[in-house]
User: Which sequence fits this backbone?
């Protein structure tokens, strides 16, 4: 298998993994952090002290990185194909470059916030 | 016609940018693809939240205040709708695309696989509430 095909296979494998992570975990994560927590629908606390305590656990940090990193990889791949589909396929190399750059920056940021 | 008198035609026809509004089925597919924009906006926002947490209590408290505002809650609800739409379409589609699951001599039907995925979704959501955000 040549290098390009290998990278493409890796991209689609991470897209699939990220898609499953987002499908299984993201709705609950959104409810906890953006809906139930802020309006006090449940006992979920998002206070500074409790969040620091949660992030002290390496498993929680790994969970945050996998959810965020997987979701970002999956979304960037999908966005790239949406951009091709709405007529930007004639600028394929530019779209690929820009989306790959965005992916690299966001993955580095996700890693930075959990280490 | 080319110089040899042969009929020529373009290598491919470029689809219109609005191909997706032709049929309701295409709109559903396009909305599924569009969900990525909403989902990634949440992911970016959460990376920002963790960054503010890292910066200190003062920064993080400001962010928490923002998340309890009405416009933010409307945005969060919209993101949630798209996230659930992604989950449902992804799990149903995966059950169709993945190779058949076999348990010994028994091959699981597509319906059973979809149902299993939905049960895993419910269980993993419960685990997120209990293990990550609980207590």
Assistant:
């Amino acid at each position: 298998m040549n290098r390009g095909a290998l990278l493409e296979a890796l991209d689609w494998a991470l897209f699939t993994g990220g898609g499953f992570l987002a499908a299984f975990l993201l709705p609950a994560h959104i409810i906890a952090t953006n809906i139930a927590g802020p309006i006090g629908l449940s006992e979920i606390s998002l206070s500074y002290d409790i969040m620091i305590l949660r992030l002290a656990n390496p498993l929680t940090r790994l969970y945050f990185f996998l959810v965020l990193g997987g979701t970002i990889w999956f979304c960037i791949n999908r966005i790239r194909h949406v951009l091709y589909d709405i007529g930007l396929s004639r600028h394929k190399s530019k779209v690929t470059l820009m989306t790959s750059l965005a992916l690299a920056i966001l993955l580095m940021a996700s890693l930075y916030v959990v280490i | 016609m080319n110089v040899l008198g042969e009929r020529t035609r373009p290598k491919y026809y470029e689809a219109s940018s609005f191909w997706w509004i032709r049929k309701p089925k295409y709109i559903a597919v396009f909305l599924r693809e569009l969900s990525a924009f909403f989902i990634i906006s949440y992911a970016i926002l959460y990376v920002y939240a963790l960054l503010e947490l890292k910066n200190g209590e003062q920064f993080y408290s400001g962010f928490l205040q923002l998340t309890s505002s009405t416009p933010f809650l409307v945005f969060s609800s919209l993101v949630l709708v798209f996230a659930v739409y992604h989950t449902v379409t992804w799990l149903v589609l995966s059950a169709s695309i993945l190779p058949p699951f076999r348990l010994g001599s028994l091959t699981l039907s597509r319906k059973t696989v979809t149902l299993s995925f939905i049960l895993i979704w419910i269980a993993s959501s419960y685990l997120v509430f209990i293990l990550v955000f609980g207590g």
User: Anything to note?
Assistant: The beta strands of chain B are 102-103, 106-107. Chain B touches chain A through 52 residues (CB under 8 Å). Chain B has a mean pLDDT of 87.
